[in-house]
Amino acid sequence: MMTTLDRLQQHGPMGPVWFRVAQERGQEPEPLLQALTDTHTAAEYRQRRKQCQRAAEAEKQRREAAEQQLLDEQWERAQWFEKRKRKMKKLARLWDEAATDDER
Predict the structure, then answer these.
(1) pLDDT averaged over every residue in the chain
(2) Can you tell me the distance from the alpha carbon of 104 to that of 99, in angstroms, rounded to the nearest whole number?
(3) N or C: which end of the chain has fewer CB within 10 A?
(4) Average of per-residue pLDDT across 64-71
């Protein structure tokens, strides 16, 4: 817990001047006894843990979806280039055939 001298002078040591330093604690100042009391129960801990796990799973799914989208885009691009390559080969054959017909 922590506080400032200004807050102590304004509200006194038993007033709402104390801040909890630990994560997931309130950002508002609290009275000393309330700040010293551990209000987090095992059930709340399990609930926070499940929430973190769900958030981690959602992030994992988001990353996997983004990776799959990237792979799909790369596949489409490769297919486009392969299709373009086949068309160019076909045009080159037609060009070569037209040139040989003119020579004859």
Answers:
(1) 83
(2) 9
(3) C
(4) 96
Task: Name the residue range of residue 6's domain.
Answer: 1-39
Q: Is there a contact between 42 and 58 (Cβ–Cβ < 8 Å)?
A: no
Give CA–CA dist 72/103, Å, rounded: 47
CA 28 to the chain's CA centroid: 28
Give alpha helix (H) positions in 1-104.
5-11, 32-36, 42-103
The residue type of 28 is: E
**Paired strand residues for 2:** 19
What global pTM score does this model have?
Answer: 0.44
State phi, psi for 29 to the nearest 5 degrees: -65, 150
Maximal CA-CA distance, the chain? 108
Whether residue 81 is found in the same domain as residue 47: yes
